[in-house]
Design a protein that fits this description.
single chain; alpha+beta; 3-stranded antiparallel β-sheet; 11 strands; 406 residues
Length: 406
């Protein structure tokens, strides 16, 4: 009997399964102990990527700024047709200023930055008897996940400077854990997420190495890529003297424009490659395309050389709209789902992001008007034509009758 046949036979057994059992039957070595995050990985990502590589810094800032520009609304009423809550509702105050130190813009920008660099973002809700009083972002490498036999028992936050035993336990209902999928997660998707840069770590290191090489080249000059040749035998002392004198005279980029003078019987021979021969253009384009693709950011939006060379300004609006539709909106919905779980109140009030404030997602009105006009001239009543192309226009008098030529 094949494996598939055995599985199907087991599923058809007459004995009913235990309805109270959890599908997350984690082994003992996973239960009731903190799952330690890879804090060194997060630190190296920030140090070597975000702080030292503009190709990492730029897309992270691009996405964080964009997400922070979308306001979170406190809403109530019918979920299919929600209405803004009155200004006095506690949820309105909370989405305007989640804590005493941050506005919602600053809060969500920090949250998105954590998600991009760590693959995880944690929001802690300071909950009191009268509801959530404040929201705080937790640095992801300081948060530990506590699994049990039925899923996640809670989280463990370790503030800086404290011993491992002096952390703060947090209830799962008070923490929103937003993460990117990790296919190798031991906790079946309940554990730590996967940071985007991990997929592009090698190309990130290569790009940093190229930048370091160029820096060293400008600091020390091109002399290591050349050779001094003499027609007469030199002692080791004479060779060291010749090299030292040559380097002191021409060994930095400030001296590259000065003419070279060699004693009789000597000469300089280039043995290294020029910048063109090293292929920095190809390396730069490769790094740009691969690192930015890991973050899902079109190169033209952050003005990279590769993006400008392979796009035109007319492509910018299309790239920005596609970026929002395919990348930012789905990622913003992740935040929205977690925010609703954390903030929905007993009176039915909840939250939603206001995408009507995003210029890139707004309809291009003139083409829609022309499309509605075309439908109208084909015999479709005006009001139906407006609705068909997605234009929200008040009822037009006589608009329920089809077009008739005079």
């Amino acid at each position: 009997m094949s494996v598939i046949e055995r599985v199907l036979a087991a599923l058809r057994r007459p004995s009913a399964p235990d309805r109270g059992a959890s599908v997350y039957a984690f082994p003992d070595w996973l239960r009731n102990r903190a799952r330690w995050s890879l804090s060194d990985r997060y630190t190296s990502t920030v140090e070597e990527g975000y702080r030292l590589n503009v190709l990492v810094y730029a897309p992270v800032r691009c996405k964080a700024r964009a997400i922070a520009s979308v306001p979170l609304l406190a809403i109530g009423g019918d979920p299919s047709n929600p209405e803004p809550l009155s200004p006095g509702h506690p949820l309105v105050r909370l989405v305007r200023q989640p804590n005493r130190y941050q506005t919602w813009r600053a809060f969500n920008e920090q949250r998105k930055t954590y998600l991009e660099l760590a693959g995880n973002a944690y929001v802690y809700a300071d909950r009191r008897d009268d509801g959530v009083r404040a929201l705080y972002n937790l640095r992801p490498d300081r948060v530990r996940i506590l699994p049990d036999s039925g899923g996640i028992a809670g989280y463990y936050y370790l503030p800086p400077g404290r011993a491992d035993a002096d952390g703060v336990p947090l209830l799962p209902e008070d923490v929103a854990h937003t993460k990117y999928p990790n296919p190798l997660d031991d906790l079946e998707g309940l554990g730590y997420g996967l940071p985007p840069l991990l997929a592009a770590a090698l190309i990130d290191h290569t790009d940093n190495s190229v930048t370091t090489f160029i820096k060293i080249l400008f600091e020390r000059g091109a002399m290591p890529m050349g050779m001094l040749r003499f027609d007469v035998p030199l002692t080791e002392e004479d060779a060291d003297t010749a090299k030292r004198r040559f380097m002191s005279k021409y060994g930095s980029y400030e001296s590259w424009i000065e003419p070279v003078v060699i004693d009789q019987g000597g000469g300089y021979e280039r043995i290294g490659m020029t910048f063109d021969e090293l292929g920095f253009d190809v390396l730069d384009a490769r790094a740009e395309s691969r690192i930015l693709s890991a973050f899902g950011v079109p190169p033209i939006l952050i003005g990279t050389r590769y993006g400008i060379a392979h796009s035109t300004y007319s492509n910018y609006a299309q790239a920005r709209a596609q970026f929002w539709q395919d990348v930012l909106v789905p990622e913003l919905r992740m935040f929205e789902d977690d925010d609703r779980r954390l903030l929905t109140t007993p009176d039915g009030a909840s939250v939603a992001y206001d995408l009507s404030m995003v210029p890139a997602l707004q309809a291009d009105i003139p083409p829609l008007v022309e499309a509605a006009r075309t439908l109208w001239t084909m015999g479709v009543p005006a009001n139906q034509a407006f609705a068909a192309v997605g234009l929200t226009i008040e009822h037009v008098q006589g608009g329920d009758s089809p077009y008739k030529e005079d």
